[in-house]
Amino acid sequence: MNGERMTAIKNGVKIGVGSVMAPAGLDPLVIKGDFPILSRIINGHKLIYLDNAATTQKPSCVISALRNYYENQNANVHRGLHTLAEEATAAFEATRKKVAEFIGSVKPEEIIYTRNATEAINLVAYSWGRHNLKPQDRIVLTEMEHHANLVPWIVLAKETGAELKFIPIDGDGLLDLENIDRIISEDTKLVALTHMSNVLGTINPVAEIARIAHHNGALVLLDGAQSVPHLPVNIKEIDADFYAFSAHKMLGPTGIGILYGRESILQKMEPFLFGGEMISEVDFEKATWNVLPWKFEAGTPNIADAVAYGSALDYLTDLGMEAVRSHEMDLTAYALRKLSELDSIKIFGPMDSRLRGGAISFVDRQIHPHDLATFLDSRGIAIRAGHHCAQPLMRRLGVGSTARASFYIYNTFEEIDEFVGAIAEARRYFVNE
Ligand code: 7TS
After folding, report:
1. Shortest CA distance to 130 belongs to which of 164, 153, 112, 103?
2. In a domain, 344, yes or no
3. pLDDT bracket for residue 22 (50, 70, 90)
4. Cis preceding linkage at 293, omega within 30
5. pLDDT per residue over 164-196, tens digit each?
6. Domain check: are 336 and 396 in the same one?
7. Is 389 among the residues known to form the active site?
8. Does any ligand 1 atom lie closer than 6 A to the CB of residue 146?
9. What is the distance between the alpha carbons of residues 161 and 137, in angstroms, rounded to a whole number?
């Protein structure tokens, strides 16, 4: 082990405990043992999974929770008077309570199950946006949004005549708040932004922006797809009105997402979809709506994945989100330093790991990101290359695509060494260096 890495590891384990021998409760090698897929051999090499911003891997407890649900509890929820239906309902609702607790002890009624973060944002665009926006109203976004928090607002603006304004980014990939008072005006009805960028890694000052938005009478929607999995998040402290995220980016199954909504606002909103589950009384020509949160959950929900998501939340809670954040901050600082030692690499986003999460986008001056990703795959290393569903941001950065490595709880400093070493190898292969 080289001296440099020793320092990085030392810093990694020191936080909060003051001893190199006593890690801050998070040992990636032990954690790896809980993830069956991480022992796979890919192209003759042990898998190094660095595509966690796209989706994370699943621990055995989540996989067995899914299996256990189907083997022992499967029934429809909220309607049966038999034992299985009662157990399925209890397990489904237990995860809702865990989610509410996980994001800062909000009320379970404020937690709505969706398919993913994308659907959660669309729910707000449909149910709140279509009834509350008129021509000349303003929706404020940022230049670093994922298409999930851009396209629904483009469509809504077109339909309602509202205008879109964008908070720009500066050369370091941070939001430029210099003209924020002009961008978030009294006409602004909604400020919708990502808490953490999936491209730049930037963690945005969301509490400060929420304060300015509320001062102007606007609501605040945060896209938490990249933040809830990686940071301790307290929605009450941030004072967000809506908060959207996906289970699959935080060890949970695909097909289940969350919309948090402030109770007083959800109460006044119309439902998103209509049918079973979401009604109170129905007659041939009229219907009334169920109470929160079920008013927004039409039809049979994704029960099994919600139940298994509860195990993912338990797993992260046991690790502690402070420990998760501290491990990733150390990995990110180390990776940024190692990558910047390669002259041919240009990194996008802040270089200070305290201002960012562990999604690092970069380009090699000579190797196309797709070629780099394919080469790394031949060494068993999974990264993502492409526009990362942020095409306007790519244009703003002056590139068509980037390569991106993104970390999670099971990644190690050794894996970063192998990743950076493989890039150097790719240069020898493609550029003849
Ligand atoms: N918002 C952000 C910031 C994201 O990173 C993503 C997914 C989404 C929303 C959408 O999440 P979904 O679960 O509804 O699809 N981001 C990525 C990514 O960076 N690579 O693959 C998916």
Report:
1. 153
2. yes
3. very low
4. yes
5. 999 999 999 999 999 999 999 999 999 999 999
6. yes
7. yes
8. yes
9. 8
Position of tokens 């990558």?
Answer: 339
Indicate whether 10 pLDDT > 70. Answer: no
State if residue 151 touches ligand 1 by the CB under 6 angstroms criterion. Answer: no
Ligand 1 site, residue 311, Cβ cutoff 6 A: no
Question: Looking at 257, 288, 317, which one is the last position of a domain?
Answer: 317
What domain range is 403 assigned to? 35-50+320-430
Burial classification of residue 131, based on how many CB atoms lie within 10 Å of its CB (0-12 exposed, 13-18 middle, 19 or more buried): exposed
CA geometry: angle 30, 316, 85, nearest 5 deg? 120
Helix residue ranges per DSSP H, 161-279? 180-183, 206-215, 235-238, 263-268
Considering the candidates 9, 169, 319, 389, report the single residue annotated as catalytic. Answer: 389
Confidence tier at 25 by pLDDT (50, 70, 90): low
pLDDT of residue 252: 98
The pair of structure tokens assigned to 415 is 């894996």
The reply to whether ligand 1 has any atom less than 6 angstroms from the CB of 290 is: no
91-108 residue pLDDT tens: 999 999 999 999 999 999
Question: Hey, what long-range contacts does 71-77 have (CB within 8 A, 24 or more apart)?
Answer: 73/307, 74/303, 74/304, 76/300, 76/303, 77/300, 77/301, 77/303
Ligand 1 centre to CA of 266 (Å) is 24
Distance of CA 21 to the CA centre of its chain: 32
Å from CA of 430 to ligand 1 middle:
31
Could you tell me which residues are beta bridge partners of residue 364?
345
Decide: helix, strand or coil at residue 242: strand
| CA 343 to centroid of ligand 1, rounded, Å | 30
Which residues have a Cβ under 8 Å from the Cβ of 231 and sit 6 or more positions away? 195, 196, 203, 321, 324, 325, 357
> Do residue 274 and residue 406 come from a single domain?
no
Burial class (CB within 10 angstroms; exposed 0-12, middle 13-18, buried 19+) of 364: buried
> pTM of the prediction?
0.94
